C-alpha cells in the first residue's frame, strides 16, 4: 500500500511540481482517501520527502566495477545520466516551494536522501585502493566529490542529459589530474 501511495505521489510531483501537488490529487490517483495519506505523512513536505527517498532507492544506480578508477567514475556518471535525469530536473526545477516550506536547501536534501551510507564515489575509491591504483588517503573528500558536483552542475544548467564528452572531460581533465596531484603530495 505504501509503495502505491508513494508511486502516486511521484507521478503527481513530476506532473505538477511541489507547489501544485495536493494530498487530494495523490489520494485520488492512489485510489484511497486523504486520511490514509495523513496517517503516514502529517504534511505535504513529509510526503514529498518520503516520495523522493522511495524513488531514489527504487531506481538505484548500479555500482560500477570496470577495473579502473577512471572507468568506474565514467560508468557511474553515465549511469546517473540515464537513471537520475528526471529526478535531478525535478529537484532543480519543481521543488522551490518544498525548500521554502521545509526550510531546507538542495545540499541538505541531498544529505537526507544519502543518509548515513557512504556515497558510491567512496566505494569506487575503495575499489581503486584495493586494486593498488591509488594510495589510501590520496584522494581527499573534496576531490572525491568533484566529479559528482561537476556532473550535478552540468545537469542543473543543461536540464538535459550531460553529453558523454563532457562526462569524459570531468573525469579526464579535472578529477584525474587532482588525483595525481594528491599522489605527488603524499610522496
What does this 3D model show about the protein?
This protein has 187 residues and is mainly α. It has two domains: 2-55, Arc Repressor Mutant, subunit A, CATH 1.10.10; 61-186, Tetracycline Repressor, domain 2 (Orthogonal Bundle). It has eleven helices and no strands. Helix 1 (2-20) runs antiparallel to helix 2. The chain is elongated, with a radius of gyration of 19 Å. The relative contact order is 0.11. The mean pLDDT is 90. This is TetR/AcrR family transcriptional regulator.
Distance between the termini: 56 Å
Instruction: Report the count of strand segments.
Output: 0
The major beta sheet can be summarized as:
none
What's the alpha carbon Rg, rounded to whole Å?
19 Å
CATH topology of the largest domain: Tetracycline Repressor, domain 2
Amino acid at each position: 500500500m505504501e509503495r502505491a501511495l508513494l508511486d502516486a505521489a511521484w507521478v503527481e510531483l513530476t506532473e505538477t511540481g511541489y507547489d501544485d501537488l495536493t494530498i487530494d490529487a495523490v489520494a485520488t490517483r492512489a485510489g484511497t482517501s486523504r486520511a490514509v495519506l495523513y496517517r503516514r505523512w502529517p504534511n505535504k513536505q513529509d510526503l514529498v520527502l518520503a516520495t523522493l527517498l522511495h524513488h531514489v532507492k527504487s531506481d538505484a544506480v548500479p555500482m560500477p566495477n570496470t577495473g579502473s578508477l577512471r572507468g568506474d567514475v565514467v560508468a557511474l556518471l553515465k549511469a546517473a545520466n540515464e537513471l537520475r535525469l528526471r529526478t535531478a530536473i525535478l529537484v532543480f526545477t519543481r521543488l522551490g516551494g518544498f525548500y521554502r516550506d521545509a526550510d531546507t536547501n538542495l545540499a541538505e536534501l541531498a544529505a537526507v536522501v544519502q543518509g548515513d551510507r557512504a556515497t558510491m564515489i567512496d566505494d569506487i575509491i575503495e575499489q581503486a585502493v584495493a586494486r593498488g591504483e591509488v594510495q589510501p588517503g590520496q584522494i581527499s573528500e573534496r576531490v572525491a566529490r568533484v566529479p559528482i558536483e561537476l556532473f550535478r552542475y552540468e545537469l542543473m544548467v543543461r536540464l538535459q542529459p550531460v553529453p558523454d564528452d563532457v562526462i569524459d572531460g570531468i573525469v579526464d581533465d579535472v578529477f584525474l589530474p587532482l588525483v595525481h596531484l594528491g599522489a605527488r603530495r603524499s610522496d
